[in-house]
Write a structure and sequence with these properties.
The protein folds into 4 domains: about 5-45 and about 340-430, no CATH class; about 50-155 and about 170-230 and about 265-330, no CATH class; about 450-635, Alpha-Beta Plaits (2-Layer Sandwich), CATH 3.30.70.1230; about 635-700, no CATH class. The radius of gyration is 50 Å and the shape is rod-shaped. The strands form 6 sheets. Strands 19, 20, 21, 22, 23, 24, 25, 26 and 27 form a 9-stranded mixed beta sheet that branches. Strands 1, 2, 3, 6, 7, 15 and 16 form a 7-stranded mixed beta sheet that branches. Strands 4-11-12-13 form a 4-stranded mixed beta sheet, covered by helices on one side. The protein is an alpha/beta fold and about 700 residues long. Helix 7 (about 220-225) packs across helix 9, helix 11 (about 365-390) packs antiparallel against helix 12 and helix 15 (about 475-495) packs antiparallel against helix 16 (about 525-545). It has 22 helices and 27 strands.
Amino acid sequence: MTRGLRPRLLPPLLATALLGVAVYAQICCPQAFSTMRNLLFDAYMAVFPASPQTPVTIVEIDEQALADYGPWPWPQATLGRLLGRLVAAGAETVALTLIPAEAAEPGTPPSRAEGDPAPEMPKDGLTEALALAPSVIGYALTEQGNSTAPPPRAAGLAVVGAATPRLQHRLPATLLPAAESVRTAQGLGALNVFPDRDGRLRRVPLLVQWREGLFPSLAAEVLRVATGAGSYVIRIAADAGTDVPLSLRVGSRTVPLNDNGEIWLHYAPRASLPVLGAAEVLAGEVPAPLLTDRIVLIGISAPGIASTVTSPLGESLSAAVIHAQALSQLLTGAHPLRPPWVAGAEALVGALGSLLLILLSFRVRGAWLVVTGLLLVAAVLAGGFWLFRGHLLLFDALTPGITIITVFTTLSLAGYVVTDRERRFVERAFSSFVSPNLVRHLMRHPDQLRLRGERRECSFVMTDLAGFTPLVERAAPEELVDLLNQYLDGLIRIAFEHDGTLERIVGDAVSVHFSAPVVQPDHARRALDCALAIDRFAAGFTGRMRGEGVPFGDTRIGVHTGEVIVGNFGGRSQLDYRAFGDPINTTARLESANRFFGTRVAISAETAAQCPQTPLRPIGALVLKGKRNPIQTYTPLTQTDIDSGLAAAYDHAYDLAEQRSPHALAAFEACATRFPQDGLVRFHLQRLRGGGSGVEIRLEQ
């Protein structure tokens, strides 16, 4: 971990740094999020599609029309007859969303269905039909067209504000219909649309650019002709941060545009638009109300001929349907908007939500932080849908939502790493004070950190240092602390090596228990092995200290096994894992009893019975203070004791004493002569000389 940096600050700092990168990317590289943003706007459209209520009808030249009236391209006479039928049915304005073929050569008869009388029109009947009613005809800007001259304008177009904008799609050539049709039609508009990279059309231009000049699209021209407007006014905002950077005024209507001269389309389902087949119209089979006083857009939808695009609703649309959708939106005046400032607002929302989450992470963790993060993301997404539903504002709620999720993920992952490191650090540090097996157990089973207990058979090891009080009075404090720490460190290390649980340290005394909190079937074996290891360490330590002139006493050890209550005890502010029960008192008294026998380790029969492989010799049947029943007690034998004959001689003398034989005293005297340094032999010899008998020993102290 970085020096001088609190580990808990690392996740918020990492999350804040990542947030800064995300906000910078949103503001400086908006195109990087365009695909994701468009998919969200598609979802807006799918959930809240438009409901067209405008007088726009679509007439499509479909497969049936081609089968009845000949293949495409149709002669102008056939198109003229179709327009004538529409005008006769009362169509208010007619527009061609296709580019008609050149006029037919003289003598070419017009195509017609069998039995359908040909109208009395000249061969270029399309031109005459265009003059019968307000009409608009389409053309296309291309890279290579039939003309490099600018397309003609049917109406004036004025630019107010800054210099003429440079639109994204500027094309140098035009593909125009016949000159006679262009002169006759009251409107001429570009058919160009520009789908996004995924093939979906989300915006339709109302202005197109041929080199440096601006020209209206077909939808804009139909709106102008249908409303009787005389010209266009393009207003360019001087402030780049305004809501509407570009607007188009058509008569009394002002249409907000983006900086590429486009409007976002709020699509209606294709099934909600009135669509008629050209064959039905030519056959006179369409009821007049479907055409009377309506704007009619004629297009071609036959597969293999018509070029189609996909809408955000996933529907395949012909040019007529596209421009009908745009025209319906222009007539209602309800346009989805994405002002320039909205990108900054999205970044701000993501930043504020993320910062709130970062600040909350200092006080809230775990499930509550997850819930808070989910609520923030849900609120942002719901807000985006609400803004579209209520105000048609295209607010990208997904990008700030992902920013918040990314920040939350960073907080979680970094927090997990820090928490894991702290957990391992606490485990190591806590293990210096508490048994590692207890720490591991509680880490794996935190539910057991409760004020409760249970009955369980455990084994106990208790130690005490003889002569500690005089040592405290004579030694300097610094020396005493260092000496005692070395001694206790050795004892605790041995206890932990045998997976014992350190229950308490009181001065120089240590208490260790086994089989709690983790059940250990061989707890008696572990306790006895631990006691023997402590005895070896303590004997060596005492020898070294005495060799250095330090009057360090012997370590007395008691070992016992019995049923106790173990668990967490204490108040809510303090948990103390320990055992309660009479076996603990028995262990303490066994440890203390060593001073009378000249032994260092006293082991109860309950423990010895579970460790038959360990060589032991009996001390006697002890009646401890406050007890009525004697407890058989043992002390370990070393290999030296066995090899020297002490074990055999002692067992012989002890058996005689246990049988209350009159020869017991002589046996112990003989044993004492051979092994005068053995304290347990001296104890029994003195007891028998004092008139004692048997092996029951009553300890009142």
